[in-house]
Amino acid sequence: MGEPEEDFAPGEGPAAKVSVSLRAGNIRAIKERVGARGFSAYVDAAVERQIERDLLEEALQANEAESGPVPQVFRDEAAELFRQVKSAPELQGDGGWHAHEAS
Q1: Assigned domain for 10 exists
Q2: Whose CA is closest to 102, among 32, 3, 17?
Q3: Which domain holds residue 55?
Q4: Rounded to the nearest 5°, which phi and psi values hold at 23?
Q5: Distance, first Cα to last Cα, the chain
């Protein structure tokens, strides 16, 4: 595969072929969204987002261990802001997410 994976941070480094198993429905949904040429880039971006979420969750847990839990009023406020952003009409475009082919 060329350079060792550990030399690169998430989202960096050259593209490399790997074999993964995905559910048939997910494969179909990705191809309908971005076509066959955008498939790898779409999956790569999804993996990168999951790594970012995992790292954020780890940081939140470390913060709570050090400083205590986030007060419920702030959690409720964040949840409401998320609902507002998620339902914003300007974010509901017809094109959705478009992948660029990973090189």
Answers
A1: yes
A2: 17
A3: 5-86
A4: -65, 145
A5: 14
What are the pLDDT digits (tens) for 46-79? 999 999 999 999 999 999 999 999 899 999 999 9
Q: How do residues 14-47 score in pLDDT, each as one tens digit? A: 999 999 999 999 999 999 999 989 999 999 999 9
Tell me the residue length of the chain.
103
Domain assignment of residue 103, yes or no:
no
CA distance 71 to 80: 15
Contact 64, 2 (CB under 8 A): no
Alpha helical stretches, state H, the chain: 24-34, 39-67, 72-86
How many domains does the chain divide into?
Answer: 1
| Residue 49, token pair as written in the block | 């987002």
> Does residue 52 form part of some domain?
yes
In-domain check, residue 13: yes
* Alpha-carbon gap, residue 33 to 42, rounded angstroms: 9
Q: Residue 60 contacts by C-beta under 8 Å, 6 or more apart in sequence?
A: 70
